[in-house]
Every structure is written in structure tokens, then in C-alpha cells.
Amino acid sequence: MMLRLEPFVPHAPDWRVGWAALWPVCPHFAPLDACPQDPLHHGEGDVGIHTRMVVEALVGLPEWRALPPEDRALLFWAACLHDIGKPATTKQEDGRITSRGHSRVGALMAREWLREVGAPFAWREALCGLIAHHQLPFWLNERPSPQRLAISTAQDCRADWLCLHARADALGRICQDQQAVLDNVALAREVFSEAGCLSGPYPFANAESRLAFWERPERAADYPAFEDFRCTAYVMSGLPGAGKDTWIRQNLPQLPMVSLDAIRAQNGVSPRGNQGRVIQAANEQARVHLRARQDFVWNGTNVTRQNRARLTKLLRDYKARIHMVYIEVPPNVGRQQNKGRGRVVPEAVIAGLERKLEPPTLSEAHEVTLVVG
After folding, report:
1. Are residues 17 and 78 in the same domain?
2. How many CB atoms lie within 10 A of CB 4?
3. Is the pTM of this model over 0.90?
């Protein structure tokens, strides 16, 4: 299904939000109207009321109106979708209503829906980054190392837009500490600015400096790390049927490959089964190449940051240069291509992977190649 999202974005001269047309468009909006919030922080009522208030607050900001149309659309839809993870995470705890983890859950839900409706990849990922981090400006300055956290966040999310969204999020609620929240957002913007990452990622000296910054709390952001790689590991990432095998044949045919599909076939392990044996065998094959300082390809889905983190730790231990290659095709194309594979992945497994999909970013690898189409 293709859906044009820009016609829903308000425009001059009246900047009116067409709620009657907008609300039925996304299946994640209706549940917001039945999702309660803690009255201490949200005296306005349910998440649906809050979402509408946030969007109206954003549309009223001169800074938002001054943005180019594509950026206005991105921030508008981020405001619409920012709390869609709350119905799945809201619970009662000690007499209070909480929704811990709703930012990350909401980013995953938004990505899945935006893939289905055909939103452009870079635009979609910028929007999901805002949703994943949208609470951070409220408390950034209260953390022990706010500049370090700001630099980490700016790698995956544009900070000036994040703070603009946070202002609208604070204005779109009824609470006693609203001014304090707005002050925190303003302070967060200053932290990003002083850290040198307000309008883009921090300019690390090189790729190794970037990865070492996250691994070593004592490492300063401006420290120029020495790059001395023993080999390059090409880590494939993408849903089943995206075309990873084809890309490898066309671009890296000369390199040895650690293939999780091949290991499953050799050991009779189903994609639905326990993958522990498969990963263990793959790690042993990888160690052979790493010890020999041999470039190689790791071919698997690797669609979540958590799964990639386990692999990248192994590769970092052997001083490999990590080059992630992410392949994405429209959902209908991927499902059709999966049916033509020698080893078809069950649709239920693909659906589960789609719900967890997190494309790799430069916070995880020395280099990321995106093959999207």
C-alpha cells in the first residue's frame, strides 16, 4: 500500500490540522483515545487528547513553520506518532500509570507502518530516531554525563529537531511543572550546542574514534584513535527475501562467507527453532577467519541492534573493521522474493522480524552501506 503523507501536513495561510481525515489513516491512532495517562503529568486526559495537543502546539511554533516542507512533514508526523507505543506499554504500578519503554516500542511500530505505506527510507529513519529519543530533552541535563549522552543521541537523531519536538510535547499537556519541563528542553538544546552536535552528528576524527567513544567511558570525543584493522568483516543485515545473497554474489564473490542459512540447513534447524547452535557454529567459523586476518562476509538477517551488538563485540575483540551492509526492498517485493528462495522462511517468522526491524547506523559500525529500493 502506498500512501502520500505530505497532504495531511498543515500549510499556510491557516495551518489547520485536518483531524477528521488524519485520524483514520493510521491504525495506531484509534487506540490512543482509550489509553489513560498519569494525571500528575497529563492532566489533559488520554493519549489521544495529548497527541492532538502536541501536534497543534507544534504547528503553532514559528520555528516549525519556517522549515522546508519536507522537514515540516517529518516533524509533523513525528508528533502524530510519538506516543503510539503507549497502549502496548501502559500499566498500573503502585497506584500510578506508567508507560516505560514506549519510546522504543513506538519507534518500532512507526517504522513498520511507514515501511508498509512506502515512506522514503532516510525520511522514515530520521522520524523514527525522533520517536525513539523524544523524552531525552526532558531529563538530559540531570544525567551524570549530559554531553556524552548528547553526542551519542545525535548520532541517530537530529538534536535541534528533537528539542523542537520536545517543546511541542511539553506545551501539549496540562501539568504543574510545565515551565520546568520547558526549561529543561532549553537547557538540553544548549548541551547539544556546546557538544557540537546540535544540527548533525558529532565530527569524530575517524570511524574508530566514533566506536571507541561508546565502548570506553573514559575516552574523550575529540580523541583521534589509531586505526589498525586486521581484516574487514562485512556484516549483512536485512529481512528474508531482501536480496542479501544476490548482493554478495555481485559485490563480494571472492570472500569466504559465514552463512546462518547454510548452517541451519546443515544442522536441520528450522528458522522457528532455537538458534543457539546456529550462532555458536557461526561464531566458530568467524573466529577461523578472524585469527587468519582474512576478510569475510557474515550473512544473516541481523535486523535488531541487540543481535548485531553480540556479533560486533566478537569482531571488535579481534580488531576487525566492521562494514555493515543493509538491504531493504518494499514489503511486497521481499515477501515475493522469499517465496522464490530455496529455503523459504515462514511468513510468521518474517512478520515477527518486521516488527523488530532496526536498520544499522554508524553508532554500530565503522561503515554502513545502505542498499534501499
Report:
1. yes
2. 9
3. yes
